[in-house]
Inverse folding.
């Protein structure tokens, strides 16, 4: 079942390049300006909710991965 | 000689360094920085309407974090207890249908017009995982992880390694990760014969008990599957209140991807008394490889005390599944630090190429076919709310309540002759309730 997978990595590369360009354009945030970013609510993920959600949706839907690795360690799908 | 010895020397140094770090983290004596154990405990209760699957899932996560040194050690134990009924993929019939249990012993009957569900679904799963985060110099970090899980009919061993590097005055973080997983599938009743007739109900097996036993004995007891994942990500601070994250994950799995308990109904499509009725059922067959890719974008921003978390994921794989996921969370934060977080998740997927809700009995079987609704055309909506109550610096209590509704459409539509109003696939409605306590 050959199907080209080039499209998505290209879109990903483009997104990363745009992000790096954005990085160059943004004024850097200094260490003393990071009080808000350091709040637990501003963390990149949630250690418990993300894992529960990944497990539930992995067992009910066909898509997985993106936020983290796509593996489930689960026989539910 | 030098070349021969150098790696051994480096390995020795690395091992010594890891041992020292482990000693510092676990014992808390060798390191200059204080490290302490923290615990994250939660219980998830998941329940589907109409007596379908329900699950209770307690989790304990123990973390030892050396705040100043940046080292981190995490262990997580998850138990998962499942019961209930699950769709087999077979279509409803105008007559009652009797199916064999997957073991080959015993049978169950489905009423006329009802979607066949196997109600013997019960399983207990445990999962143990651990990961180690070690800073390498000022800007680099390495995270190594291990994952073990076991179910009655499934075992999985996984390992992962990820490297993170900060640059651009620590405004940009690059992540590169690799993960490997080896699964062993040991279905009840053995690995069924792909696209062959499902085992008839034991009391009406025309083959007779001896041939039936021989068929079951001839099945392989287990099958295996391996998966390799690559994850590349960038997190970029935009200003003192916001950041964006872009991840690209690529995954390839090889081995047995079939669900051993799922079947496809062969339906009479020609005009006649049985038109639109399932006449036979065969075990499903999926390709032996799957390549998945996903692009994930997240934007997170603080508005004073409140926080917005918005994400989008585009997913596609070489089975023909394309999926879009949008998630929104907003923390309404009170002066006390407690917050109320509404959550909306919208999901839509296009069916796998070989997904079919039924096949015509008059035609030749295709190479691959699955009627597993999870590979079909579907959309899901989750609406939920979380209330988080920080009690002090390390004690937090959280409650989460969510409702998930999934609607599925038959592909390629109902077979000709299907009685008006007959449901071929059940929608899924689930309630999730979760309590979390950290100390």
């Amino acid at each position: 079942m050959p199907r080209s997978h080039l499209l998505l990595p290209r879109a990903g590369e483009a997104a990363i390049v745009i992000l790096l360009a954005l990085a160059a354009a943004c004024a850097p945030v200094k260490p003393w300006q990071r009080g808000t970013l350091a709040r637990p609510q501003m963390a990149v993920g949630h250690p418990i909710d993300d894992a529960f959600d990944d497990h539930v949706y992995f067992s009910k839907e066909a898509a997985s991965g993106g936020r983290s690795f796509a593996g489930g360690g689960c026989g539910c799908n | 000689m030098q070349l021969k010895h150098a790696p051994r020397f480096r390995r020795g140094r690395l091992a010594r360094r890891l041992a020292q770090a482990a000693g510092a983290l676990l014992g808390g004596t060798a390191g200059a920085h204080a490290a302490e154990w923290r615990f994250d405990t939660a219980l998830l209760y998941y329940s589907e309407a109409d007596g379908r699957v329900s699950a209770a899932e307690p989790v304990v996560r123990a973390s030892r974090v050396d705040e100043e040194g940046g080292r981190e050690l995490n262990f997580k134990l998850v138990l998962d207890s499942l019961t209930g009924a699950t769709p087999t993929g077979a279509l409803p019939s105008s007559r009652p249908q009797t199916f064999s249990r997957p073991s080959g012993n015993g049978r169950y009957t489905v009423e006329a017009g009802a979607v066949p569900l196997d109600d013997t679904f019960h399983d207990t799963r445990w999962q143990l995982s651990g990961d180690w985060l070690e800073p390498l110099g000022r800007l680099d970090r390495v995270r190594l992880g291990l994952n073990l899980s076991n179910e009655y009919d499934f075992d999985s061993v996984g390992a992962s390694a990820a490297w993170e590097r900060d640059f651009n005055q620590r405004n940009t973080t690059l992540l590169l990760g690799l993960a490997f997983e080896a699964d062993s599938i040991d279905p009840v009743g053995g690995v069924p014969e792909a696209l062959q007739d499902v085992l008839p109900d034991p009391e009406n097996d025309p083959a007779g008990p001896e041939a039936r036993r021989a068929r079951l004995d001839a099945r392989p007891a287990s099958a295996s599957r391996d998966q390799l994942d690559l994850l590349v990500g960038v997190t970029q601070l935009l200003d003192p209140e916001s950041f964006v994250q872009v991840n690209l994950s690529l995954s390839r799995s090889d081995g047995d991807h079939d669900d051993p308990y799922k079947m496809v109904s062969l339906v009479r499509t020609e005009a006649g008394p049985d038109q639109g009725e399932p006449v036979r059922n065969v075990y499903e067959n999926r390709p032996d490889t799957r390549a998945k890719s996903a692009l994930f974008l997240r934007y997170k921003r603080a508005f004073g005390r409140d926080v917005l978390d918005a994400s989008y994921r585009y997913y596609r794989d070489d089975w023909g599944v394309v999926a879009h996921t949008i998630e929104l969370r907003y923390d309404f934060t009170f002066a006390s630090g407690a917050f109320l977080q509404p959550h909306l998740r919208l999901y839509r997927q296009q069916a796998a190429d070989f997904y079919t809700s039924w096949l015509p009995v008059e035609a030749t079987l295709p190479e691959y076919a699955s009627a597993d609704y999870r590979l079909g055309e579907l959309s899901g909506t989750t609406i939920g709310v979380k209330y988080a109550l920080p009690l002090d610096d390390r004690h937090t209590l959280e409650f989460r309540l969510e409702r998930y509704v999934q609607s599925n459409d038959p592909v390629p539509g109902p077979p000709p002759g299907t009685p008006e109003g007959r449901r071929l696939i059940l929608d899924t409605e689930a309630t999730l309730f979760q309590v979390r306590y950290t100390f």
In short: Chain A has a mean pLDDT of 81. The CA atoms of residues 37 and 52 of chain A lie 25 Å apart.
